[in-house]
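Bug #77: duplicate submission created two jobs. Keeping one. Sequence:
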Amino acid sequence: MARADLDEALAPYRGPVVRTQAYRLKDHAHPPAGHPFLTLATAPVRTTVGPVDVPVRYYDSAAAHLCFPVDPAAARSLLPGADWLTPSRLGPRALAVLSLHEHRCTTIGPYTEIALSVLVDDLWRPRPYDAVTDLLRRVDLRRTGRYVLSLAVTTEAARVVAQEVWGQPVLRMRAEADLTGREIRARSEDLGLVVEGRLGPGVRCPDADRALYGRRGTGTVRTLVRAHGRLRLHPGAGVRVRLDTAAAEPLAGQLRRLGIDAARPLFVLACPQFMAHRGGGAELAR
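Kept job's structure:
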């Protein structure tokens, strides 16, 4: 019945062929995800969970970096005993950074990350104001960096890569974060930590490329992170850090010794969406 109905409907269009035309159908070309920033050469690195391609690529992430001026002596007490690791001074104070990351799509899977770090001087020839002048240098030429004191991640793959590739002191914890709007929030019941608040007016900043330091055995591991996104600088008055009285070590103890367990940051660097790639850790004989 259906065929008969179709034949009847098409009857007026039957007749001799007058002209034919050939068409070539071609789909629009789509570049690879993250092109051109994330289309770069990679190499596998062995880990206990199997080979991992390095640099690790982050296709869709959000971040908020809470920056606190802290006592240099307190910051120094949290660094390893090596005398070449010294906190950078910005005036009379050192700088501690509590970083919150919401990684929605990466080459090691989605995960949430909470990290505490301290800005440190050049390992060989520390100079006054290096932390300021380094902002004018490319990240691979910077002398200063941020030493990671504590790191918490929500997946086993992220824990293994942070520990075995980047040499960072890492724990696997439950955590959740929402960093895409003006209201930011991060919570970890395992850490006993809550960060929440509203970002005020902000100004556009250059991308937050950075050098991170960790330790592997007796050596220092330096890792470069390059980012591309819409980073903005906000005053920190609207954001609050709260720590439970029974919060877990080591992060809780470090926050308390730095005096930022119930403090407001001086400023916040926030980016609701960015891409990044994090290279393999280079071991330094320091």
